[in-house]
């Protein structure tokens, strides 16, 4: 007895759909990641306008030709680096939320850990350089702004479960997270220039105290 031919819907997935990344694809992705890591280091150390393609290539351990094969322009590279840094940040929030209790202590824990493990890192310093440059660069802003908006929305989604009992509703949560983000960024820029770590920590604790008291 002959078996009927499988219908279009029953056919096995194509090789492209089912195959794992090839060795070349994995190598290419590793090179792109190494270039983005090199770009972040250069941006933090030298600032946006003093960072060159050659510097990034040297930090990444690749030739300029190889770098420009993956990222033809500086804007392409900066956009990819921003996306790389924001993705790392989201992974951090996803892991941290598993370690925090769903109670009134969660807000303070999130802010303190975000400050220590996100905002005061070289990676956030590099991201800050990109955001500052995008303020006066229309093309760069058009590339970066949607990624920042997606990052902010994704963070809210990651933290909604643990902070909802504290914030009370989605609107309050959105406001608290956005104000906290702006506060910590401003604190890093303003007080960071003065190098007064003790004052920065004091301001952070005062902000946490004010929010917690206001939401009891």
Tell me the helix content: over 70%
Number of helices: 10
For the record, the CATH architecture stands as: Orthogonal Bundle
Specify the oligomeric state.
single chain
For the biggest sheet, the summary is: none
- Secondary-structure-based class equals mainly alpha
Radius of gyration: 22 Å
The outline comes out as: globular
Taking pLDDT < 50 over at least 5 consecutive residues as the criterion, the unreliable ranges are 1-7
Name of the top-level CATH class: Mainly Alpha
- Which series of helices and strands comes N to C? HHHHHHHHHH
Distance, first to last CA: 75 Å
Please tell me about this protein's structure:
77% of the residues lie in helices and 0% in strands. It is an all-alpha fold and 216 residues long. The chain is built from 10 helices and no strands. Helix 5 (74-96) crosses helix 7 and helix 5 packs parallel to helix 8. The protein has a single domain (24-214), classed as Tetracycline Repressor, domain 2.
Topology:
Elements (H helix, E strand, L loop, with lengths): L14 H4 L4 H24 L6 H8 L3 H7 L3 H23 L8 H15 L2 H13 L3 H30 L2 H25 L2 H18 L2
Helix pairs in contact: 2-3, 2-5, 2-7, 5-7, 5-8, 6-10, 7-8, 8-9, 9-10
């Amino acid at each position: 007895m002959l078996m009927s031919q499988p219908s279009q819907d029953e056919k096995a997935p194509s090789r492209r759909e089912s195959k794992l990344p090839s060795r070349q694809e994995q190598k290419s992705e590793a090179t792109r990641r190494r270039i983005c890591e090199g770009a972040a280091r250069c941006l933090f150390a030298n600032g946006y306008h003093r960072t060159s393609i050659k510097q990034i290539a040297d930090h990444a351990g690749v030739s300029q030709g190889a770098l420009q094969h993956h990222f033809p322009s500086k804007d392409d590279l900066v956009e990819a680096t921003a996306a790389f840094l924001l993705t790392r940040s989201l992974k951090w929030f996803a892991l941290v939320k598993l370690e925090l209790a769903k109670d009134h202590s969660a807000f303070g824990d999130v802010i303190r850990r975000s400050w220590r493990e996100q905002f005061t890192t070289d990676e956030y310093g590099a991201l800050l350089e990109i955001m500052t440059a995008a303020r006066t660069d229309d093309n760069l802003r058009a590339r970066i702004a949607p990624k920042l908006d997606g990052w902010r929305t994704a963070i809210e989604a990651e933290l909604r479960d643990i902070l909802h009992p504290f914030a009370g509703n989605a609107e309050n949560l959105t406001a608290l997270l956005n104000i906290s983000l702006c506060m910590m960024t401003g604190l890093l820029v303003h007080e960071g220039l003065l190098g007064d770590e003790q004052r920065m920590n004091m301001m952070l604790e005062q902000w946490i105290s004010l929010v917690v008291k206001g939401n009891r």
